Amino acid sequence: MKRFVRFGHLLGAFLLALVAIGGGARAADLSEPVILVATSALDGSPFAQTVVVAAPIPNGRHIGFIINKPTNLKLATLFPDDVAARRVDEPVYLGGPGLIQGVFAVTRNVPEGGGTVVPLMPGLFVVIDGAAVDRLIASTPNDARYFMGIMLWDEDELEEEVSNSAWDIRPADVDTVLRAKSNGLWNSLRAPTASIAFGDREPA
Prior knowledge:
This protein is an alpha+beta fold. Helix content is 19%, strand content 30%.
């Protein structure tokens, strides 16, 4: 079995990018967090029927997590020596192909005690620091969702994917990201009434 880690330190450049989430507005409205809904262009790929939360980082890059792919693994299976991990009820989700041996926690609340915690959007944070993830598991284990791996896009790569009709864009919100049951999420977001045109703002 692969050795999974809760990152205490990542590559310096990657962390510097993460902590500066926000960036300036660009031509497409991907300068704010969004929900990406896979289109038929991704059928037959590993991203078929996926729903992804994506957030901008500087220089045209983005990070995110697949939010509708729970695995059959529990956190206690990945960390059998961690007694607190046995208290986590939900399975671990497949967050993406990047840093696949890393486990990340996505939560509404910043864990106490500091650590590397990055805002994805107002009211939603990703916990990267291993010690902070440990504290979260020990204190409020079911207040977070745990992901293996992450989605990473290079400069302007996501813009290109959207312009090539790989993804439909939806407004991002915390409840969608942490929806209790992800079954049917892709179908519900593919409904025509949910669509937002590329480059347009959400209607008032």
